[in-house]
Amino acid sequence: MTANELKQIRLYRQHLTDRADRITVAKDLLGLQSQFTSMAYHSLIIRCNESLDVSNWGSGLVKTWTVRGTIHIISKEDLPLFKYNNEIYKSHEWESEMYGGTVWLSAKRKEFFAKLIVELVASGVGERDELRRRCRIAGMTDVEESYIFNGWGGLFRPLCERGFLTYTAQEKKEFAISPEYTPMGEKDAKLEMLRRYLEHFAPATIRDISYFFGYTQSEVKLLLNKLPVNTTSVEGAEHLFTGEIRTDYPDLPKCLFLAGFDQIMLGYRKEDSVFLPSKYIRGIFNLTGIVLPAVLLNGTVAGRWKKRGKKLFISCFRTFKSGEKRALESAARKTWKDALTIEYN
Description:
The structure is a single chain. By secondary structure, this protein is of the alpha+beta class. It has a domain of 90 residues. Helices cover 36% and strands 16% of the residues. It is built from 14 helices and twelve strands. A five-stranded antiparallel beta sheet has the order 1-3-2-4-5. It has a five-stranded mixed beta sheet with strand order 8-9-10-11-12, covered by helices on one side. The protein has a two-stranded antiparallel sheet with strand order 6-7. Strand 10 and strand 11 form a beta hairpin. The two termini are 36 Å apart. The model has no long low-confidence stretch (mean pLDDT 94).
């Protein structure tokens, strides 16, 4: 298999050349990483075969901590998959919980505010800032606030991990009561996540799988032994996958505007990426941990993009040919469907 054939398969399996509805996309891609919710929305826009706007795109979806301990937008139906730990589901044991930085808070105070927050959200008070205000009224001190509302999750992350709350899938920071579910259990959940990866991200190497999930390669190999797996060689490297490999995948798109934190970038070890030339890694994966929105020309990252209002700014990693610019401008009109001024630098 050639590198270009691998690109065609991955783009198709990740719904970039085979569009689907938003629930299917969220499930097949194991969620959409959502440090910036607007980027998760863009990930759906470029993959979905349905009309989405800010009023409806989050229907059936929730936002919570999942793969690699990072925030993702997932299908509500997948809560049992990602929140697979039976031992902590609906637990009010707070002594060992620690997502509030270095500030210490007693288990009694954690439990008090945890119950208060859940009661408030159940009553319809979901916005983070309003929850902060209500907690202050209830006696929350400045020190307690630095714990409960800590940027690394505070008290909200364990409330989501334990099946009490989820974020709503929207730009605004707002919580909702989690649907009831029965956690799958760790073994079954990890096997199902790996099965989906092999079906919708792969062909991929063991190092890619290890990178995506944050597992050791030894753990990956043990899981692979429990699944039906096929192999193929790409430029001498063994790649694994499930399902059939066709011979008629769509051609590589002339231009794609990938989202920031897009699964095409995060799904594989960046140093081995078939899409991202090594000399451009820092142009997409910056040193602060941000994965910037990439411009894919003929299946290869050639720059990054940023949109402000009706202006689209393109940072070129190399000189763009006139035909590439025409393809980019055509793709921009189809992607955003409004009159854009495009600036290159």
